[in-house]
Amino acid sequence: MALNLFEDKGCPLEKQRFTWKELVQPPISKLDDDAFTRVRVILMNGIEMEAIRFSHGCARMNKELQLPLAQLRIVEQHQATMVNGLIGADHSMLETTIGYEQVAIEVTAVVAQNEPDPYLAQVYRFGMLEDFDHLYRYSAMLDRLEGKDANNITQCYTDIVPGRPTVIEHRAPQDNLREHYDRSRAAPITKLNALTIMSAEQQTQNFYLNVAPLYADPVVRQLYVEIASIEEQHVTQYESIIDPHETWLEKWLLHEANEVYNYYGCVQQESNPRIKAIWERCLDYELGHLQVAMNMFKQYERRDPAEVLPGELPEPIKYESQREFVRQVLNQEVDLRALGTQFVDKSQEGEASQQYRAQLNSSGSPTDTVSAGYQWWPGTEIVRGKEMAFKEEYAADTETIR
Amino acid sequence: MEKTTVLGKNRTGIDMSPIDAKEMMALAKITPSSSTGDEQAIAEMRSQYIREAEVIGSIPPPGTLKGMASTAMEKLTGKNPEVFIDKLGCRLAFERAGVRLYDALITKCAASSNGSIVPIERLREFRNEELEHFKLVERAIRSIGADPTAQTPSADVDGMASIGLVQVLTDPRTSVAHCLEAILIAELADNDAWQLLIMLTEKMGMDDMARDFQNALREEDEHLAHIRQWFKQMVMEDAAVVT
C-alpha cells in the first residue's frame, strides 16, 4: 500500500516519547544480519543527522519557527540515537567504515538510475565511482591492519576493486560545484534523491573526521584524512544540486518528506523483524513531523504543501546489489573529470584542479600507499601471498631461548 | 550448560554467495591495483613516523624527594628508579582494571542462566584479591615516595591493550565462555607481569616488597589455573567431548 503524505497523519508529535532503554536497543548482528540491514541503519542515521543539522540552521535564521523546530528536533535526536546504536561494537571502526562506503555505492547507484534528470544522474554516477574506490582502499587497510576481510561486511553484494583512484579525486573548489535543480520544475523524486545522498555523504564526512584520530596508526589516520577530504567535496557537490531558492519552510517540508520516504523504503524491505518494527515506529513519527511542518508552511507561507510535495511517494530506493550497473559505469566513466559544473574527459581537466592535487599529493597519497599492489581475494591477500623472507638462524635462536 | 555456539544464518564468507563470489573473484583477478608495490609501503610510512615520534609520556618524578623513605632512597641509588615506578604504576593500573573486569564477569555469570560451572563466590574472591593487589602496589609506590594516583606510560599502554577485553566482557551478546577467554588473556598477561615485577623488585634491592609480591603472584597463579580450567571445560562441554 502506497503512503499518502496528506492523508496518513502518523503519530501526533505530543505522543512521540522514548525511554533511555528504548534508545539503546540490541544492535544488529554483524555476522547474521543481511548487509542491507546495516546499509539501512547507516543511511537512516545519516538522514536523521541531516534533519538535526538542518533544524538548527533553520532555527538560527527564523525566530518564529524556533519552538516547533525544537519540539521536533529533540525527537529527531532520539531517533538518530536509536538508529545509530544498532551498529554493534564488534564492528571495528574500519568495518563500520566499509559499511559506510557500501551505502555510498549501492544507494547512490540506485538513485542514479531513479533520477529523471540526466545531468543529475551523471552527478550521482560521478560521485559513486569515487566512493567505489574508497571501498577498495579501506578494504586494503582493513586487511593489512586488522587482518580482516571486508567482504564479510559487504557480503558479496559489492565488488572490491579500484574505481576512479582517490589520488586523482582531489579538485579545486570551483570544480566541485554543480548546477542545481529548479525547484518549480524538478520532479519530487529529484528533490528527495538530492537530500538523501547529501545526508549520507555528510554523515560519512563527519564520521571519518571523528574516527581518524581514534586510530594509533598514522597510516590509518592519513587514510581517513585523505578520504574525508573527498567526502567534503561530495557534500559540496550534493548540496549545490539543491535549489538554493527554496524557502526555509519549503526545505523543512522536503526534509520531513524525505525522512518519510526513506523510512517507508526501509519498512518495505527490512529482513529483520525487530529492526522493521523500529523503522515502522520512525515512519509513524516522521509522518507526525510532516504534519507539523505542513501546518507551519500553511501558516507562514500561506501556501498549499501540495505545491511542494507529491501526494503519493515515489518508488522507494531498492536495497539490492547494483553490481552490473556499477561495473558498466566503471567501464564507461572512470576517466571523467569535473571542470566547473560539467564533466569532461581527463584530457580536458582544468589547470586549477591539477595544481591543487599536485600540491596536496606532493608527499605521497595515503590511499595509494595503503593499497600498493593490493588485490582483494576471499580471505584475503595473504591467501594468495608469499611468506616473508627470514633467516634460518633465527629459528635456531628461538630454540636457544626456549 | 551454556551453549556458546549455535548454528544459524551467518552471512559472512563466500560460501554464502557462491555465484556472486565467483564474479567478484573474476573481476578482482583481472583488475590490477592502481599503485605498485606491496604492504611494505605501509611499513615505510610507519617507520618515518616512528623515527619522528616523541614518547607517549613520561614518568612522574617522586612528589617530594625528602618524602622518600631514606632506606628506599639508598637502595635505588645508582639505578633507574623511573623504570621501577613505571612498572609499579602499570601493575597498580592493571589490578585496578582487573577488579572491574571481574565485576563484569560476575555480572555476566550471574545473569546467564547457564553459567553454573563457574562458581560466582570464587569469582568474588578473585575480584577481592585483585583489589588487595591494587592496594599492595599502592602502598609499595608510596613507600618509595612516588604518587600512586599518577598514570605512568606503561599503565597507559596497558590500558590501550585492555580496551578490547573490556568490550568483550561488557557486550551483552558475548557468552560466559567468551568472557572467560577475555579474562584468561588478562590473567596470562598479569601472571607474566608479576613475575617480571618481582624480578625487578629484587634487583632493586627491595626484598620485603618482593616477598609481598610473591604472595600476590601465588594468588594470581590460582586465578590463572581456574580461569583456564573453566574455559577449557566450557568449550569441551559445548563441543560434547570429554575433557
Question: Secondary structure elements and their pairing?
Answer:
The complex is a heterodimer of chains A (402) and B (243).
Chain A: H1 20-23, H2 35-61, H3 66-84, H4 93-114, H5 118-146, H6 151-154, H7 188-211, H8 218-240, H9 248-269, H10 273-301, H11 323-333, E1 336-339, E2 342-345, H12 351-360, H13 366-370, H14 381-384, H15 392-401
Antiparallel strand pairs in A: 1-2
Chain B: H1 18-30, H2 40-52, H3 70-76, H4 81-111, H5 120-143, H6 153-170, H7 176-203, H8 207-238
Question: Any descriptors?
Answer:
heterodimer, A: 402 residues, mainly alpha, two-stranded antiparallel ribbon, 60% helix, B: 243 residues, Ferritin, 68% helix, Ferritin-like_SF (chain A), Rubrerythrin (chain A), ferric iron binding (chain B), Ferritin-like (chain B), Ferritin-like_SF (chain B)
Could you describe the 3D structure shown?
The complex is a heterodimer of chains A (402) and B (243). By secondary structure, chain A is mostly helical. Chain A has one domain. Helices cover 60% and strands 2% of the residues of chain A. In chain A, α2 (35-61) crosses α7, α4 runs antiparallel to α5 (118-146) and α7 (188-211) packs antiparallel against α8 (218-240). The radius of gyration of chain A is 23 Å and the shape is globular. With 243 residues, chain B is an all-alpha fold. Chain B has one domain (40-238): Ferritin, core subunit, four-helix bundle (Ferritin). Helices cover 68% and strands 0% of the residues of chain B. Chain B has helices at 18-30, 40-52, 70-76, 81-111, 120-143, 153-170, 176-203, 207-238. In chain B, α5 packs antiparallel against α8 (207-238) and α6 runs antiparallel to α7. At the A-B interface, α8 and α13 of A face α1 and α2 of B. Chain B: This is Ferritin-like domain-containing protein. Chain B: It comes from Nitrosospira multiformis. Chain B: One of its GO terms (molecular function) is ferric iron binding. Chain A: InterPro entries: Ferritin-like_SF (IPR009078).
